[in-house]
Amino acid sequence: MPTVSNTSSTSTSPPTSHHHHLRADAGADIAIGAATSTFEISEEDLDHSESTSFGTRLKEVMSDNSAVINTFIAGGLAGAASRTVVSPLERLKIILQVQASSSSLTSSGQAYGGVWESLGRMWKNEGWRGFMKGNGINVVRILPYSALQFTSYGAFKSILGTWSGETTLSTPLRLTAGAGAGILAVAATYPLDLVRARLSVATSGMAIKSVSGGFSAEDAKLGMVGMTKKVYHTEGGVRGLYRGCWATAVGVAPYVSLNFYIYESLKTSILPSSLSSSISEPELILRKLSCGALAGATSLIFTHPFDVIRRKLQVAGMASMSPQYNGAIDAIKWIIKTEGFWKGMYRGLVPNLIKVTPSIAVSFYTFETVRDLLAAMGEDDEEEEKIV
């Protein structure tokens, strides 16, 4: 995640620092990285000399855009690491969100309740593979999702800074940048998220035969490609793969906005630049992880109901799993009517909080560590070239 910034997003001087300590420049965030990078390749870059090899030109272009490239790589790895760490809780959260209320559990085999009890059942029935079930497709999805989110956040901040002329982006503009980044990332990767949710539920032991041709125990045998084909052919093609997308975007936009905003705000107080050389490495790591954990937990409390609606809509095609909603509004009405607002709309909150807290903490920390490492490696390469 980006480092805290109280300076202009249009700054023209990217920061340098030791990756073990905070930057001296508190404004060294993704917005600056995006703003200082060249997004367009000029004709002069492509054809400045006939004798210049393609490899040399490509290296020059990558050097000019190193901040964006580093951000993209670091963002993808941060997402993959954070989701793998909490894969069992991610799967459990989905199961708890989409299973029927306890009052309607009959012979369907649905028996997931408390967090630790459910994790024990998952381990007993499926072992380590059960904990990691669906993580492969989750990583495939989160790599581009996280990379796009981090990179586009910086780009949006840069654009909004130029448009507004503000030397320090106001809170509404920073929230807008986060919302734009979240929506863009969701739109690009949503089908993978839907298929992952289907696979997590299909293999959870809650499957029952359905004469209506919806969800059945046979779906537990489908992999990522098989489930994608099933949804595409039986639920209206691309429209089926994007079932619940707008509800997801509506929920993700404020979540991502709050995540970035709260994290950047916390860093100004928990990790001020004045502490860069006065605290130990373990304390620095702990402070960084704390900022991410608090940001993720706080954001989730406000946006969890949107996540519940998203999952309900994603598995609506599984006829044995849930009612067939006519959109997000119908789903909200049904949930509140049958389960109540707090119990229904906040179903799965506890495992989600347990999951999000370490996940966002790891994501922030991994992102900044990888980004700083790549930047340091780039600086070392430049120094070697100068010597040569």
UniProtKB/TrEMBL annotation:
InterPro entries: MCP, MCP_dom_sf, MCP_transmembrane. Residues 7-16 have a biased composition (Low complexity). The keyword Transmembrane applies. It is found in: Mitochondrion membrane. Pfam families: Mito_carr. PROSITE patterns: SOLCAR. Keywords: Membrane, Mitochondrion, Repeat, Transmembrane, Transmembrane helix, Transport. Solcar repeats lie at residues 66-159, 169-269, 283-373. Residues 1-21 are annotated as: Disordered. It is a multi-pass membrane protein. The keyword Calcium does not apply. Signal peptide: none annotated. Belongs to the mitochondrial carrier (TC 2.A.29) family. This is Solute carrier family 25 (Mitochondrial phosphate transporter), member 23/24/25/41. It comes from Kwoniella shivajii.
